[in-house]
Design goal:
single chain; mainly alpha; globular
């Protein structure tokens, strides 16, 4: 997931990901659940939001809409909902955090 970054594809499905990993949907779904994610979408959101934090740290508020699309979101409302769910902050609030708080938050995102 970290190397090939299939999560950047807004159309990724469980079947697509299973095929890329050389497994089947059932095994992949069980593995996702074993890592405390309820659904593929939660698993994908983790990667997207982690990447989005890195993008925001580099570029600031620049073009936030573009940043959401860069990490694989098609819908801004979904991106904002996922960001808030994963971090507890809106992107604007995240940008106002000091560097140490951001590091702590990014470490907390890792499962």
């Amino acid at each position: 997931m970290s190397v090939q970054e299939p999560w950047r594809n807004p159309d990724i499905t469980l079947s697509d990901l299973a095929e890329r990993l050389g497994t089947n949907r059932t095994t992949l779904s069980a593995e996702i659940h074993a890592h405390s994610y309820a659904h593929l979408s939660d698993y994908i959101a983790f990667y997207r939001i982690t990447a989005l934090c890195r993008v925001l740290d580099k570029s600031g508020a620049g073009n936030m809409d573009e940043a959401f699309f860069e990490v694989g979101y098609r819908s801004l409302s979904t991106a904002l909902d996922n960001f808030k769910k994963q971090t507890g902050y809106t992107p604007g609030q995240y940008l106002k955090l000091n560097p140490e708080e951001k590091i702590i938050l990014r470490k907390a995102l890792k499962r």
